[in-house]
Write a structure and sequence with these properties.
heterotrimer; A alpha/beta; B alpha+beta; C mainly alpha; A: Alpha-Beta Plaits; Fumarate Reductase Iron-sulfur Protein, Chain B, domain 2; FAD/NAD(P)-binding domain; five-stranded parallel beta sheet; 29% helix; globular; B: alpha+beta; Cytochrome-c3 Hydrogenase, chain B; three-stranded antiparallel beta sheet; 13 helices
């Protein structure tokens, strides 16, 4: 016993005061559930209609409490970035940190204010949360998406572009490309959910190359890119980037600039290194098999690249003076500089592909000869013929088609511009020709006089959004929701295009069924009308015999899923048989190359 | 070769016996054991025997993303989790060069001080229970519950808040919370005299606690003692003043000390600290409404967040003493190495062993509790 | 939609005139018959890529013809064959299509589709107008059904037109 200072000495009686508590209200509440706080972190809620099954919650979960489960019957739409799976939570592992809520790209996940679950059945602790809550009791959201705690960066890094005043009269590339720092930040926005991979027709490994860029390993990025795409310089510029449409970050913010990141990787690695990386894994021992490819567009050259890489001798026949197809003769240089296309083609040639330009099949070489001299023939000639609306007046000499004019622009041929131009069409081709002609006008006259008339309303334009915006910046007048009625001709000269108001393009079932208000007529004045409504395939080069031998489907060569036609040894790919864009053509090129390769392998064994 | 801490099992002489104290003894905070050699009621030697709570926090942190560790760190110390969150966040902020917005700093101080009060209330109750005064424990815990309600409203969770994140905090305060906090503080002040009646002015406590587990200031310093245990030996050392962090320099508070260095002195320091925390909270409540702005700086996508290479140590004055996180990054998306300096590491091992030697068996629990040793801090 | 472009014309002057059901069915059947014969003839002329399309059109018309035959021979119809029906203004345009058109020796897919769309439109308008004019009952139901049939077919053709000619709008 220690002596205690008298100051400290207490009393025996004072603790007895505690007896007064017997007559007080208890501090603790009765044994019934107490309402949880407003942002309580209880059991999960998940709005199934909002959830896209991206699995980011599973990635961030620090306890591996979340597992994505495939749910039969749920909508699946890879093109829109929707997977038929939903997060299942293991409450034996969950720690209610709510990082899943804070990172959820859609905002579908939340924690509820429900917190009581008692059961001896262990299975009941493993649940697939929906919007009704763990016991369907309708508890409201507790900790939910909130801008303060959102863990995603919803804003895209800005892209430097040529200002309108310095691009209006030339064909210089508009988009400058990312520098190292912006590319790194943009790459860091990716959550690696893989929606882009599934949305891409060629299933490019976008998450992998974005991660490689973020790691600062640009060569690894190029390697990942070349796994599925021999036209990365092209696609890094003009791809329709379905990846970005499907990007999960785009649900609430700007999608990751996947296309520009691909371009960044390609722009920042030396051409020699790119060629070496693309050639990794090439079979150097010739197989002794030969393949002829007709057409040097994206489908034909992709197939050629794949087949040459596997050791086959590939010869590509191109009727135009240079290779590239629509990528060269359709897309203007301000979107895709020719030297970038040349860079991609140089890599393909380095793989051993022989490209013979100026060789028209049917006149210079016959199909029969090709088929005789090669083990396989691939036709990938695209859609080279212009379509016309055939409204009255379209047979006038000053009514031209977009693809014919674009071809002339590429070749550097003089285009006769009699005066103001009216373009019919609302797709990218329409904008390509409108903007090209505007540049030529500006260069010659110092002013732009181009009008573009599209059937679609402004918010349903088929062209890329930036095309519409940039075209308007460049002084092109865009009219939406108008259908062509006739080209007005006076004294043998085109006076303009008469249009009527288009009330609707599609019927309730989504079928093309334009309805017009015939009273609402407008004359768009112009001395020249350019049609850009669509293209057709010219298959005359096949010859009568082959044309009759082939099976056709609504005017297009009928192919199996792997690109095989009904005629032995003949494959078809690209726009010729399926649309609609470069990346789809590349995907088709891969498919058909796989099929041809399998066939050649079978021949070798036989 | 033998490990450094190898001690051969000595066969005690016939008049001595060995006792395994714990790990499930109700009088201590569970999951911690002490092996004691006794002669009669008097302890001849005590060997701290931890490890029952070892969950490998430091190692697990190396395999988790920077943000994921936010969910892990509060678990190191149940009764006082906020300093864990804050120290970890500040060490990452030091590495990554993140600026914590001012409002977030004030909110963090609010959280830290409420957590300190909760921890001390818990300890009063526990300490009283070790000498048979269970009523006090119920009162302490029920009072603490009112503060947990405040935590629940702010963070959505009562115990493991996972609220402080590198760069700030995860949510702004809900409307009206400062008034509610004020009311709870007033209630605590109103009830403080009852705690005095039952505990601090009780003869039982005087007789049991005074002179029990005494250490001198020199001993304390050489054993690595920090926090209230050190201040109970007469040294006014407090990181909030001596190595200030957040907005503590803008706040008025005293550093209470005692000189006796025994169990009673330690409890009296804690009691005075609760009053200082109340004083701090009143200043925070007055100031917070005028501090506007964001509550977190922008963070990179947590799945692609590389923290620059380097090492950083951030420490806080927790209810137990100096709590610090030493974090090493090699520039990757996860810590390369984390070391947690839990103050209880010292208090529950060398200090406890020394203080128990020569003490009586009935004081084991009291001595351990008066040191406010938190076993999970030992077993990080 | 005529064979002059992608336009519709909807203004019609209403010229009322009466015909018996017998006559109406006669015209309708020769309308379908001519078309079938026309497409069948065309199928022999066009190159193979378009042959499938033209053959499909011919088959569709043959189905319509068979449908009319069935209707005409049905006992319910037999009883009403001499009923008089007010013939709507669309009759004139409709009758034009009873004549086989001249699309030239080698029409392309666009020309064929535009002609076919024009036919379906005229038939739809004719049957709708007949349904309006006919008294409520089986006769009205018959024309309503025929109008729907033509509309559905036209919808299919418009879809094909958009896919083939506009190549998906590229």
């Amino acid at each position: 016993m220690v002596n205690i200072s008298p100051k400290y000495k207490g009393s025996f009686l004072r603790p007895l005061k505690a007896l007064s508590h017997l007559f007080r209200e208890p501090v603790t509440l009765p044994m019934e559930p107490r309402p949880a706080a407003e942002n309580y972190r209880g059991f999960h809620l998940n709005e199934w209609a909002e959830c896209i099954g991206c699995g980011t919650c599973q990635e961030i979960c620090d306890n591996a409490a979340i597992r994505m489960v495939n749910v039969p019957g749920l909508p699946s739409d890879p093109a829109k970035g929707i997977k038929p799976r939903r997060p299942a939570i293991d409450y034996g592992r969950c720690c209610w940190c709510a990082l899943c809520v804070d990172i959820c790209p859609t905002g579908s996940l939340a924690l509820s204010r429900e917190y009581i679950h008692v059961s001896r059945d262990m299975d009941t602790y493993f649940i697939l949360p929906d919007e009704k809550g763990m016991h369907g009791l309708g508890f409201e959201k507790g900790w939910a998406k909130n801008p303060d705690s959102d863990l995603l960066d919803l804003d895209r890094q800005p892209m430097e572009e040529l200002p309108v005043e310095s691009r209006g009269d030339n064909f210089d590339e508009i988009v400058k490309g990312f520098d190292d720092q912006t590319a790194l930040i943009e790459a860091s926005r990716c959550i690696q959910c893989g929606m882009c991979h599934e949305a891409c027709p060629a299933n490019m490994h976008a998450p992998e190359y974005i991660r490689a860029i973020w790691d600062g390993d640009k060569e690894r990025a190029v390697r990942e890119i070349y796994r599925t795409n021999p036209f990365p310089q092209v696609c890094g510029r003009v791809c329709t980037h379905r990846c970005e449409t499907a990007c999960s970050i785009g649900r609430r913010g700007d999608p990751v600039a996947i296309r520009w990141l691909k371009r960044y990787a390609m722009d920042s690695v030396e051409a020699d290194r790119i060629r070496d990386i693309a050639g990794e894994g090439r079979v150097t021992e010739p197989t002794g098999r030969s393949v002829a490819v007709v057409g040097s567009g994206p489908a034909g050259l992709t197939a050629a690249f794949d087949l040459a890489k596997r050791g086959h001798a590939v010869t590509v026949y191109e009727s135009k003076p240079q290779a590239g197809g629509m990528m060269r003769y359709g897309i203007p240089e301000y979107r895709l500089p020719y030297d970038r296309l040349d860079a991609d083609i140089a890599v393909i040639e380095a793989m051993g592909v022989e490209i013979r330009c100026g060789q028209a099949i049917g006149s210079d070489v016959s199909m029969a000869e090709l088929r005789e001299k090669n083990d396989a023939v691939l036709v990938a000639t695209g859609l080279g013929q212009a379509r016309s609306t055939r409204v009255p007046g379209t047979d006038h000499p000053n009514v031209a088609s977009a693809i014919v004019l674009l071809d002339k622009v590429t070749r550097g041929e003089e285009i006769d511009l009699p005066g103001p131009v009216v373009v019919i069409g609302g797709g990218n081709v329409a904008f390509d020709i409108a903007r090209s002609l505007a540049r030529l006008q500006k260069r010659r006259d110092g002013a732009v006089a181009v009008t573009l008339v599209a059937l679609e309303e402004r918010d349903a334009m088929l062209a890329d959004e930036e095309e519409v915006i940039e075209a308007q910046e460049e002084g092109i007048a865009v009219f939406n929701g108008r259908g062509p009625r006739q080209v007005v001709i006076e004294d043998g000269a085109v006076r303009g295009l008469e249009t009527v108001k288009c009330l609707s393009i599609f019927d309730a079932e989504g079928r093309f069924h334009p309805m017009y208000d015939e009273q609402d007529v407008v004359l768009h004045e112009g001395a020249m009308v350019v049609e850009a409504i669509g293209q057709a395939a010219d298959t005359g080069y096949l010859g009568d015999e082959l044309t009759e031998a082939l099976e056709w489907q609504r005017g297009r060569i009928q192919i199996a899923a792997d690109g095989r036609t009904s005629v032995d040894g003949l494959w078809a790919a690209g726009d010729l048989v399926q649309g609609p864009d470069v990346i789809s053509a590349i995907a088709a090129g891969h498919r058909v190359a796989d099929s041809i390769h399998a066939q050649l392998g079978a021949m070798a064994r036989a | 070769m033998r490990p450094q801490n190898y001690r051969p099992v000595a066969h005690p002489p016939s008049h001595e016996y060995e006792l395994y104290f714990g790990p499930n003894h109700p009088g201590i905070e569970g999951n911690y054991a002490i092996r004691v050699r006794l002669k009669g009621d008097v302890i001849q030697e005590a060997i701290a025997d931890g490890g029952y709570l070892h969950r490998g926090f430091e190692k697990i942190m190396e395999s988790r993303l920077w943000i994921q560790n936010v969910a892990l760190v509060p678990r190191i110390c149940v009764p006082d989790p906020v300093p864990m969150e804050d120290s970890y966040a500040r060490s990452v902020e030091a590495l990554g060069g993140l600026e914590v917005p001012e409002r977030a700093q004030w909110i963090r101080v609010l959280m830290l001080e409420v957590s300190r009060i909760c921890a001390h209330l818990f300890t009063f109750g526990g300490n009283a229970a070790t000498i048979g005064l269970y009523t006090n424990m119920f009162w302490g815990v029920s009072m603490r519950d009112l503060f947990l309600d405040i935590f629940e409203e702010i963070t959505g969770a009562r115990i493991y808040h996972m609220y402080i994140t590198p760069g700030g905090v995860r949510r702004d305060l809900p409307p009206g919370i400062l008034d509610k906090l004020s009311a709870v503080i007033d209630e605590l002040e109103r009830r403080a005299p009852e705690f005095d009646d039952l505990f601090f002015d009780s003869t039982v406590v005087m007789n049991r606690a005074a002179g029990c587990g005494t250490m001198t200031q020199e001993q304390a310093l050489s054993w690595g003692v920090t926090g209230p245990n050190l201040r109970a030996c007469g040294l006014p050392f407090d990181l909030r003043r001596d190595d200030p962090y957040l907005v503590y320099p803008e706040l008025d508070f005293d550093i209470p000390t005692e000189t006796a260095g025994d169990a009673l002195a330690r409890m009296r320091v804690r009691k005075a600290e609760v009053q200082q925390s109340i004083r701090i909270l009143r200043q925070v409540i007055a100031r917070l409404p005028s501090v506007k702005g964001p509550i977190r700086c922008p963070l990179p996508n947590p799945l692609a967040w590389n923290v620059p290479a380097g090492e950083a140590y951030a420490r806080a004055e927790s209810s137990k003493g100096e709590l610090g996180f030493f974090v090493v990054s090699n520039g990757g998306d996860k810590p390369w190495r984390v070391h947690v300096r839990g103050p209880s590491q010292m208090h529950a091992v060398q200090v406890l062993e020394n203080l128990l030697t020569g003490a009586r068996i009935e004081d084991i629990a009291q001595i351990m509790f008066s040191l406010d040793a938190c076993p999970p801090e030992v077993d990080r | 939609m005529g064979n002059t472009g992608e336009g519709h014309s909807s203004a019609h002057e209403r010229l009322a005139q009466m015909k018996s059901l017998d006559e109406v069915l006669d015209t309708a059947m020769s309308f379908e018959k001519t078309a079938q014969a026309f497409y069948a003839d065309l199928a022999g002329k066009v190159r193979k890529p378009l042959r499938g399309l033209v053959t499909e059109l011919a088959e569709e018309e043959a189905r319509h013809f068979a449908l009319f035959e069935g209707v005409r021979n049905h006992a319910d119809t037999q009883a009403h064959l001499q009923d008089l029906i007010e013939i709507p203004a669309t009759d004139h345009k409709f009758s034009d299509f009873v004549q086989a058109p001249s699309l030239g020796e080698a029409p392309d897919d666009q020309a064929i589709l535009q002609y076919a769309l024009g036919r379906e439109q005229a038939a739809y308008e004719q049957y709708s107008a007949l349904a309006e004019a006919a008294p409520t009952g089986p006769l009205q139901n018959l024309f309503r059904f025929l109008a729907d049939e033509e509309l559905r077919h036209k919808g299919e053709l418009e879809k094909s037109y958009y896919e083939i000619v506009h190549s998906g709008g590229v």
